[in-house]
Amino acid sequence: SISIMTEIGNRLGHAQALIGVAKCWLEKKEMDTAIDNIQKAQEIAEAVGSKLCMLKIHCLYEGIYRAKEQQQELREHVVKFHECVEEMELYCGMCGESIGDKNNQLQALPCSHVFHLKCLQTNGTRGCPNCRRSSVKPGFV
Question: What is the pTM assigned to this prediction?
Answer without folding.
Answer: 0.65
